[in-house]
Automatic annotation (TrEMBL):
Family of this protein: Belongs to the glycosyl hydrolase 63 family.
Domain Mannosylglycerate hydrolase MGH1-like glycoside hydrolase residues, every copy: 26-419
Keywords tagged on the record: Glycosidase, Hydrolase
Single biological process term from Gene Ontology: protein N-linked glycosylation
GO molecular function: Glc3Man9GlcNAc2 oligosaccharide glucosidase activity
InterPro entries to which the protein is assigned, alphabetical: 6-hairpin_glycosidase_sf, 6hp_glycosidase-like_sf, Glycoside_hydrolase_63, MGH1-like_GH
Protein's name in the database: Mannosylglycerate hydrolase MGH1-like glycoside hydrolase domain-containing protein
Hydrolase among keywords: yes
A Pfam family that the UniProt record links to this protein: MGH1-like_GH
Superkingdom of source: Bacteria
Organism in which the protein naturally occurs: Micromonospora costi
Amino acid sequence: MLRRLAVATLDANWEHDHTVPSRTLYPHQWSWDSAFVAVGLAHVRPERAWRELESLFRAQWADGRVPHIVFNPRLPVGAYFPGPEFWASERAADAPAALTSAIVQPPVHALAAWLAYLRVPSDAAHAALRRLYPRLVAQQRYLATRRDVGGGGLACVVHPWESGLDNSPAWDKPMAVVPADAAVMRAYRRHDTAHAPAAHRPTDLDYARYVAIVASYRDAAYRDDDLAGRHPFLVECPLFNAAAGVAEHALARIAPLVGADPGPHRERAARITDALVRRLYDPATRTFQPRDLRTGRLLPARTVLGLAPLILPDLPAPQVEAVVAEARSARFGLAARMDRPLPSHDRTAPDFEPLRYWRGPSWMNINWLVRRGLLTHGRADLAAGLARSMVGLVAGAGCHEYFHPDTGAGLGSPAFGWTAALLLDLLADGRDPDAGG
């Protein structure tokens, strides 16, 4: 029954060559959503999995960036905020002909391509890998060169939206110094609060700051030179860079299949892991935390971002032990038997909000990544407990965008793409007791 629900959700969200996250709030193509959706589609619609990834990469910029939104040109102006008229990406010399945003999201795409190939290693999948490989390499090159603002070997995000965890408490300190007035939002019509209570979403002041950060980037024609001298938000994110490291590991597996050398990918993966430990691991708190490049300081909020480096297969044993201990603490509640998946923020913190977007709710994609990390580092017992809790969420509430971390109630948009896709991946994994293992 759950498998049928997931397949029906993905089929209903299919839009000629890609999947929309939902038919309510998100009518376009989102970058890391498409990667997660491809992982699920590989189990049931493998040809669509490759179309999903290739449609996204057709909108790749000349500099290698993969935009976080590819807009559907058939939709009317104002159908979504912020839409293409807000981004005005045509101001940038490297922008494609397609209508896109100008920022990126965590680079989980190479991992998705590798997993899709492993699921169905057909001639068609091999041909798709050959087409995607140079684009995936260009994506990684962009992040490693244009975005290494701190000079320490890590990519920085230039907007909270790039992290994927839009209004996480992790960003409160750097966001607080972005000059903005909530009144600026009177010039725009937010669509998110028409589909979810305002108390569940970022505030108008948050959105005013989001707009101000984009305006700063847009005024510079989305160039990445001199970001340190002019851009108001520059942060090295643990999840974003862990994804970049895993991408290099995936590319090292893909490279021999397409006649390329895996060695440089392995070397870059090792450098990213080393930089993550050196720059973002805090020995005092024994967790990973983002670094604000404006101040040079680690940001104090303990969020699920700090658990993401577990997905790196070469994460050193002391950091693996520390991350697992953090996940098992009262802040997150990981256990071999658990009722609910990990929340997105420390549930013991005074600013924990179980209903507000990324400030407490549970999300399938982040839990899926952490589960992969647990399996990578030999913690099958904890991975099984996490998988059971994730499947239980959907069994109880359906394929929602996110979930109440205590009650399991579905929140945000219903019939959400990546929730359905990653449920399929869980159900197909023989190590998951809910898949008959």
